[in-house]
Amino acid sequence: MTPADPGGPAPAPVPSDRDPERLRSHAWFGGDGLRAFSHGTRMRQLGADPADYQGKPIIAIVNTWSELNPCHMHLRERAGQVKRGIWEAGGFPAEFGVASLSETFQKPTPMLYRNLLAMDTEELLRSYPADGAVLMGGCDKTTPALLMGAASAGIPAIYLPAGPMLRGNYRGTTLGSGTDLWKYWDDKRAGLIGDCEMADLACGIARSPGHCMTMGTASTMTSAAEALGMTLPGAASIPAVDSAHYRMATATGRRIVDMAWENLTPDRILTAGAFEDAVATVLALGGSTNAVIHLIAMAGRCGVPLSLDDFDEISRRVPVLANVRPGGKYLMEDFYYAGGLPALLARLAEVPGALHTDRITVTGRPLAEQLTGAQVYNSDVIREPGTALAAEAGLAVLRGNLAPDGAVIKPAAASPSLLRHTGRAVVFHGVEDLHARIDTVECDRDSVFVLTGVGPRGFPGMPEVGNFGLPRRLLESGVDDAVRISDGRMSGTAFGTVVLHVAPESAVGGPLALVRDGDLIELDVASRRLHLAVDDSELAARKAAWAPPPRAAERGWVRLYVDHVGQADRGADLDFLVGGSGAPVPPGNH
């Protein structure tokens, strides 16, 4: 097998009682009542004879394929391979299309719809005769949304990652999606390159199906899904167009059938230890700051306590082992051929207390068994703890009077000279104000740029604008980084000294809403401190004069979202969705 190839046979699970009456779908098709008869007639209408499905696990294939989601453009084909595996294992597949969250095209931000896809997934699995589910996704918000929905639904589920695209190419230079886009765009704004260069860049930066091949949010979250134990071993690292991805899809289909018979539900996999291991994995990967919000939200669905303090505590003892952009040198294709996530987890297991290897995964076996024999084929891509890129992981949680409930920064992606910095604030009130004034504001290289109104409620949806570009005058003078602070997020492919997820956000009256031009702001990452140097009495006066912004919408999903979304430090889930619910058979005669 190729490195991290999950296509081989998994360890055989302990045989379970395969009484068809124990299947959830029996409530729809079992017995000799009117409803069972009616359901049988409709299955015939679909072209299925009773022998095709009766007494077999019915597996829902939850597919986020879309013709406007390039990360998932191959998932229609992969669904066919999943079906083959389900049929081979004695199950009955049924494919469902759900919302497709495209980071590339969806406005105002796909984060606005993460919780909607989670609800879509949960209610689909609850309301249909599904005994198990294969969750198909990969683009940033899709992974947490599908897993949140499946965890709330409570039926056996397994995740099939879309896989990263191939590495990009530009005039003989290897490109990483997102990361190099920001870099070359700044070069264009500074007048260093022109339209011809940008045309060549556009043709080479994204050249195959699959999600971003840097360690952006997509690769971070699919890796987190594998670390949680919700994928087959090695599944997250396989490039989307590699034939191993085809085999993994079929193997995933085979495995979910056994999981249905075993009733191996998410609550048995998504334990406190699993979430701690996912956090450690994200940090060892130098992964996206977005993982903080998503993992906290996912843990909330499982009733598992997980907080910003847990991230900060784990970050102090976990080294950065993956030499992958934006914090490193290589791309996901290199990471896969270096051994993939199993190899990184095996290296991470060498750090005392870093992993809980006795917990089970979707294989039904302990994580430790999956790591036995995992090899690293390129030690520059996947480092040993003794040769780590950084002794502490690339995430820090900041607190202070500017962020009482916390904020995050990725030191590994920041300029070392700015990790302890004091400067005067230049404030932008929303994205439109930023776009209108970014190149005309009075500023210098010590300025601290503050963007408000881009939190969960304020935008709404908390867009990836925290790594906004610098004023042209600074770029033209050779300044390529500055401290930027916001209640929004940034792309996992981005870099810079960027403070994010400030909580509480400005739209609910958090201290960020009170910052004015010229205020001194102190950042000290080593001390985990973010401080607004303004007297408490002055801040109190400003707060008394503050008025909340109008509600972003008066109808539909956006109103529901704004009225119920939580703050970033709590995962930005809807308040009425937090906590496990399970998936009983719906009541009534239907």
General description of the model:
- The chain is an alpha/beta fold and 590 residues long.
- Helix content is 34%, strand content 13%.
- It contains 21 helices and 14 strands.
- The protein has helices at 26-29, 34-45, 50-53, 75-88, 114-127, 142-153, 179-189, 195-204, 217-228, 243-262, 266-269, 272-284, 290-301, 308-315, 332-337, 340-348, 367-371, 431-437, 472-476, 536-545, 556-564, and strands at residues 58-63, 92-97, 132-137, 157-161, 168-170, 173-175, 396-400, 403-409, 420-429, 448-452, 484-486, 498-503, 520-524, 529-532.
- Strands 7-8-12-11-10-9-13-14 form an eight-stranded mixed beta sheet. A four-stranded parallel beta sheet has the order 2-1-3-4, with helices on both faces.
- Helix 6 packs parallel to helix 13 (290-301), helix 9 runs parallel beside helix 13 (290-301) and helix 12 (272-284) crosses helix 14.
- It is globular and about 75 Å long.
- The two termini are 47 Å apart.
